[in-house]
Amino acid sequence: MSRGPAPSLETPSLADVRDRGQECFGKHPCHWQIKIAIAFLKRDRDIVCIAGTGMGKTMTFWLPLLFQPSGIQIVVTPLNQLGQQNVNSLRKAGIQSVAINAETATWENFRAIEDLKYRAVIVSPEQLMKPGGEFEKLLIKPEFTSRIIGFVFDEAHCITSWGDFRPEYKELQRLRYILPCQVPFMIASATLTPETLTEVKKRLHMRSENLLTIHMSTDRPNIQLGIRKIKYTLSTYADLGFLIPLGWKEGDPLPLKFLIFFDNIQEAIAAAKFLQSRLPAHLRHKIKWFNSDMTTEFKEEEVEALVSGDTMGFCTTESFRLGMDVSNIRLVLQWRATCSLSTIWQRWGRAVRDRSLQGTAILFAEREYFDDVRQEKQRRKEAKKRKAGNSQAQAPAASAKRRRIDSMPSEATSAPPSSEGKTWNARKKRKVLDPAMDCLINANFRAGFQCRRKVFHIHFNNASSGEKPVTYADATVTASNSIACRQ
Questions:
Q1: Which range marks the domain in which residue 67 is found?
Q2: What is the CA radius of gyration of the chain?
Q3: Domain contains 265
Q4: Contact present, 472 and 357 (Cβ < 8 Å)
Q5: For residue 384, is it within any domain?
Q6: Longest Cα separation, the chain
Q7: Which of 16, 21, 25, 197 makes an SS bond possible with 192, Cβ 3.0 to 4.6 Å?
Q8: Minimal CA–CA distance to 96: which of 85, 87, 83, 107?
Q9: pTM of the predicted model as reported, rounded to 2 decimal places
């Protein structure tokens, strides 16, 4: 079979990339996006791209294809939904692509890949690193690997954070020894801390001596940030009632399009049912839950319903977090402080990916995580101790008698009472609050912060981007869903 010449090493000018990008994708690439495209085409270095959610990292994956007609770009992505999303967007640009996951890893698809029918291949780590799998066979064929422009590891922070329960992420380190040395690797993420970046580069054996690093600020200035204490019993979800005011009916102003993130599928379902109960019966389908238990096809249909406006919002889990591109979600909430700072920033980044819009992101956190609540609890504890001390001083005889009783032998001294044991077990299992999340919750009142946005600025080392941090007022959302600022 004739496969044509291997990719050319000629590289275009900045102006050429800008013009072709506008022609094919309908957008002028930024200077940093063009630099990444040219680095891919030169094939002489690896690439690190850190940029905020919705800033256009994905465009950098595809720009090189416009200048290598016989080249292939391979993108490793953590979620099936992301793969299909990329296939759909590339189809609009006239670029043939395929997403390979457990459902699509067919003999026919792999033969089409080998025959160079696809310019972009989006693949899960499980399929890429499957022992004896079809991809492994492809990657040892020079006639195929000579066509590879580069390997992109999208949402690269997952390489470290998901490696324990998705072991194929750990196996990615073998790629450097399988592929020709000139194939560039690129890692892309909005949430790479300095420590995570170091670990990812080490695992992928990236060439630190010849590395292009693009570090844009991960800030999202068009998203106002807010933190709220959960007032009501957790299981009622009553704090979320402002999303659907009581008495709302068809014809009233529509609620803001929203996402609520949970770290538990059952909580997401229960919250969705609570919000549905506030709608007229014939409109309750407009609020859905969205999670990993659903099929890929079903999730695609539900995302389309959200995009079109037929669905008001989702109560979702991690399934909607990474890279999902719905441009006009105005409100993103995190229910409970049960995730990491990197995770909440990815989730909040689903808001208003259309930079011309303004959105709001709010964490509803448990009361016990707020400094003022902790301080009040400590004051009560100390007052109780003082009161107990005064009572003991007034009744020394009673105390002595109590001590004599306590010192008597007992058959039960080797174990605590059953109720005490239950309490101890509950405390032992209690999830510890992530220290960075603690800073976020209390930043407005702690020395050195006074702004919650600064917590993210420090955590993701945005100072390295050269961009100055921006301070904003805290965000608040009223029951009528209007967005305002609370100084």
A1: 14-215
A2: 27
A3: yes
A4: no
A5: no
A6: 102
A7: 197
A8: 87
A9: 0.81
Backbone angles phi, psi at 422, to 5 degrees: -65, -40
The model's confidence at residue 467, banded by pLDDT at 50, 70 and 90, is low
The pLDDT tens digits of the residues spanning 170-209 come to 899 999 999 999 999 999 999 999 999 999 999 999 988 8
Q: What percent of the chain has pLDDT over 70?
A: 84
DSSP H or E segment with residue 81: helix 80-92
Domain stops at, among 310, 334, 368: 368
Q: Which is it for strands 474-477 and 483-486: parallel, antiparallel or unpaired?
A: antiparallel
Is residue 192 located within the same domain as residue 272?
Answer: no
Q: Is residue 159 part of a domain?
A: yes
Distance CA 448, CA 406 (A): 49
Rounded distance between C-alpha atoms, residue 139 and residue 246, angstroms? 58
Please state, rounded to an integer, the average pLDDT across all residues of the chain.
85
Tens-digit pLDDT profile for residues 259-305: 999 999 999 999 999 999 999 999 999 999 998 888 878 888 898 99
Query: Based on the domain organization, do 299 and 241 belong to the same domain?
Result: yes
Q: Name which residue leads in pLDDT, 165 or 12.
A: 12
pLDDT at 229: 98
Q: Determine the Cα–Cα distance for residues 261 and 413; give it in Å rounded to an integer.
A: 46
Q: What residues are paired with 130 via a beta bridge?
A: none
Residue 475 reports pLDDT greater than 60: no
CA distance 341 to 460: 10
Handedness of CA 114, 119, 124, 125 (dihedral sign): positive
Q: How many domains does the chain have?
A: 2
Per the domain annotation, does 3 fall within a domain?
no
